[in-house]
Specification:
This protein is 41% helix and 3% strand. The protein has five helices and two strands; from the N terminus they run ββααααα. It has a two-stranded antiparallel ribbon with strand order 1-2.
């Protein structure tokens, strides 16, 4: 065996190409007894508590958005201007609204009508030719 000043190194490791690493013993610095008492007090002051397992809450299921349908239709100019008038009327009531919202509100109003009033509303609307209008 080969000896070094701090550590005994075996003959087997001494034969290797790399030199042996010498590790010195590290002794802790002297600590005052008052400091040791404070450290012990801090360590013992903390109560050892087991972590509380929180009950698992189920994630709320995601509400699927309704699928939107894009459509085009032909409407007489007089009725189209009524949509603009209704938009302005809603704006004066501090509720900005889009044309599509107005149409959807109208559909809901028709759906809520009793059969007699619904039929009267349908008869009040004249039928128009379907398709794109001619350019005038």
């Amino acid at each position: 065996m080969v000896t070094t000043d701090k550590k005994i190194v075996s003959a087997k490791s001494a034969k290797t190409a790399a030199p042996a690493v010498v590790r010195a013993k590290v002794t802790p610095a002297p600590v005052a007894p008052a400091t040791m008492a404070k450290v012990a007090l801090k360590r013992s002051a903390k109560p050892i508590a087991k972590p509380i397992a929180m009950p698992k809450t189920e994630k709320p299921s995601k509400v699927k958005k309704p699928k939107l349908v894009r459509d085009s239709f032909t409407i007489p100019k007089a009725e189209y201007t009524v949509l603009d008038d209704l938009k302005q009327r809603a704006g004066k009531l501090a509720h900005a609204v889009k044309k599509s919202e107005l149409l959807r509100a109208g559909i809901k109003a028709l759906a809520a009508m009793p059969d007699g009033a619904f039929l009267a509303a349908l008869k009040a609307v004249p039928a128009i030719k379907t398709g794109r209008p001619n350019k005038d």
